[in-house]
Amino acid sequence: MDKLRAIKLFVKLANLGSFTKVAEQTNTSKSMISKEIGRLEDDLGARLLHRSTRNLQLTHVGEGYLQRAIEILEKLDDADNFVSDLQHNVRGKLKINAPMALGITDLSVLFADFMLENPDIELDIHLGDESVDLVEQGFDLGLRASSRAIDSNYVGKPLTRFTYKVCASPEYLAKHKAINLPKDLSEHNCFVYSYFQGKDVWPIEDGVAVKGNLKVNSTLFMMDAIKKGLGLGFIPDFVCQKMIDSGEVVEVLAEANKPRLTLYALYPARHFVPTKLVKCIRYLEDWFNNNKPA
Question: What are the distances in angstroms from CA 280 to CA 80, 106, 110, 112, 113?
């Protein structure tokens, strides 16, 4: 027996007072409805209705059961509406994991704009460059900049692309050997980013093994050492471009072949993707499309 269906039929029957009317509204037969009510009574071990050829009358037990059944169905509708509201309206909490440097640069502006347009969404943003399991740590969305294929365990939406640049300060270049070819980097103090997948090999042309006296898990930290004239870094353009434009640092080997970074929006595969998440990803796409460098 489908008990929930039987309860709904019982409530409808009590309200309409007629098997015929219920049968017409539900497009079923009177005998089927009678059997469902009989199964419900058997399951409860009590009679809910007095049946006669002319009318239906609730028993004392039936009256009490009707009141409680109506409350149950109202709460069920409320639960359904709650889920529907979260699925189809832009409100609620989004927990997001994003790269530290990108979070402090572009994403801080982006999400501030997003919050202005979507005041009913609560953002819980975690910045960090270490690899995390989005599902295990309860993230709705992860942003990843990668030059390689993304983890197939997630749905990945490409948002924008970045480039790498080899950066040094004018003071450093004035005091050290000229860098004309990628192989020349082997004679220079090249800083290493801890989470870089290539480790101590920069993917310039066929790859260049580098070494230096600084290894750090933050490209923003690394940029301060570069500006001080202490060495070179292999840096995404969203970190270094403003400093290149201002002349604080200089791009080296600009014409050399380097990989491009794709920024992905990653989220766990789901049958139903909440509207708030869809809205956020679309906003990210539009923002990056409208804010690409000229």
Answer: 24, 15, 11, 12, 11
Q: If you average pLDDT over residues 11-36, what whole number do you get?
A: 88
pLDDT (tens digit, 9 = 90+) per residue, 188-210?
999 999 888 767 899 999 899 99
Do 182 and 240 lie in one domain? The reply is yes
CA R_g for the chain = 32
Give the helix ranges, DSSP H, for 107-251: 108-117, 170-175, 219-227, 237-246
Cβ atoms within 10 Å, residue 144 = 22
137 and 186 within one domain: no
If DSSP codes are grouped into helix, strand and coil, which group holds residue 9?
helix
The answer on 245 and 194 residing in a single domain is: yes
What pLDDT sits at residue 229? 95
Closest CA to 216 of 96, 97, 101, 98: 101
Structural domains of the chain, count: 3
Greatest Cα-to-Cα distance within the chain, rounded to the nearest angstrom: 107
pTM of the model: 0.65
Residues 27 and 71 in one domain: yes
Q: Which domain holds residue 67?
A: 3-88
